[in-house]
Amino acid sequence: xxxxxxxxxxxxxxxxxxxxxxxxxxxxxxxxxxxxxxxxxxxxxxxxxxxxxxxxxxxxxxxxxxxxxxxxxxxxxxxxxxxxxxxxxxxxxxxxxxxxxxxxxxxxxxxxxxxxxxxxxxxxxxxxxxxxxxxxxxxxxxxxxxxxxxxxxxxxxxxxxxxxxxxxxxxxxxxxxxxxxxxxxxxxxxxxxxxxxxxxxxxxxxxxxxxxxxxxxxxxxxxxxxxxxxxxxxxxxxxxxxxxxxxxxxxxxxxxxxxxxxxxxxxxxxxxxxxxxxxxxxxxxxxxxxxxxxxxxxxxxxxxxxxxxxxxxxxxxxxxxxxxxxxxxxxxxxxxxxxxxxxxxxxxxxxxxxxxxxxxxxxxxxxxxxxxxxxxxxxxxxxxxxxxxxxxxxxxxxxxxxxxxxxxxxxxxxxxxxxxxxxxxxxxxxxxxxxxxxxxxxxxxxxxxxxxxxxxxxxxxxxxxxxxxxxxxxxxxxxxxxxxxxxxxxxxxxxxxx
Length: 498
What we know:
With 498 residues, the chain is α/β, with parallel strands linked by helices. The chain folds into two domains: 15-365, TIM Barrel (Alpha-Beta Barrel); 375-497, Immunoglobulin-like (Sandwich). The chain contains 14 helices and 18 strands. The chain has helices spanning 15-18, 53-66, 84-100, 112-119, 128-144, 169-176, 215-227, 264-275, 304-317, 325-328, 330-340, 345-356, 360-372, 479-497; strands spanning 70-75, 104-109, 151-152, 155-160, 184-188, 199-201, 236-237, 375-377, 382-385, 390-393, 395-396, 404-409, 412-413, 420-421, 427-430, 439-447, 450-453, 457-462. The strands form four sheets. Strands 1, 2, 3, 4, 5, 6 and 7 form a seven-stranded mixed sheet that branches. Strand 4 (155-160), helix 6 (169-176) and strand 5 (184-188) form a beta-alpha-beta unit. Helix 2 crosses helix 3 (84-100). The longest helix has 19 residues, at 479-497. The chain is elongated. The mean pLDDT is 94.
């Protein structure tokens, strides 16, 4: 759904984040860091703009590593009305990015736009056919001819979410006739015959899970559903949906809740569809937050749905499918590094190329190196007399303005109080230290989904009046102190390496 806008992208919060009637205010942020968006769910990469090239790179790489071959954009045409130009701009950006990632793309045209254009007088009833014909001619020149566009049996695949407005099949035939090759035309499974479409695609299907059925019953119901439009699998695009939980109020809210069932709703439909004879399977949707049908990573579900896609593709392809659940986390870390702006773009472009080419090990190692470089100064070991302050500092790359810090002593998190201050800052201080303050100190710096652990620093506190030379506090300065110092230093160095 290429319909999201943010101040960083297009200069404002779009209605799919705010609600069509300002039901939400994304400028408001709760203590957990969640913006008030118009959805029951929240993207792990934060609310985004659909033209952001770094977001598109992240999303497409996540799809690719999950085993998804391409993307279908919900497209509202070329008219200069309402938010249609914004959606078109984002669709163009999405398709360009998909081509760069060697992924397929296709369009799902929303013919409901025809009714709206008629209602505002931009389109006349007598011009509907020519309007559709010019729209399809533009698609032919700009999309259908591109090498990454989805082709089936030598014909570009075109979906229509309907027909909603144009329910006369002759109009569709006349509008498609001028094209050099008629697209393989699919419409909604319950409406497709009204458009004289070649076949049907499925969307959300609630009835399959009614009554808490067994898996056997679920699969029987899916078989009936998917074969309903046609017994010819080439004419049906089945779907696997994660669930349905919208934020709409009547009259927009017309569909019931569909339980996600811990991922089983999605897993059962996807497994059945992939095992079957259908050449194309659709996953509605990547990111419809209004309806709650998103499979992209969210705070609520994490990477669950993409991990399920991986499971199903691995069952299908065996060793030919090499990616793991940990690989799915790499694109968002790349996005975090791009947003921080502290790593040379050439290094990040190399990481993106490695992910695009499937070299996840090289990408992971490069991300780790770039992440560690974000902490530019490591804490130093110190030895003080009892009663003096222990102080440890780190420094973070200047460009990385958004981060959080925690400190630990011997693996136990510290909190301010009882002489401890700065436990959530780059400078930790233990005032009026005692021998109990001694230990190995480590800072963990979090940049979004990237966590970097600093080198370990030894904090030693001597109770001896002989000063720093009496390391073991036995009242003597001798070789035992040298040995104790070496032991402590080696322990701290070992923990740092770990």
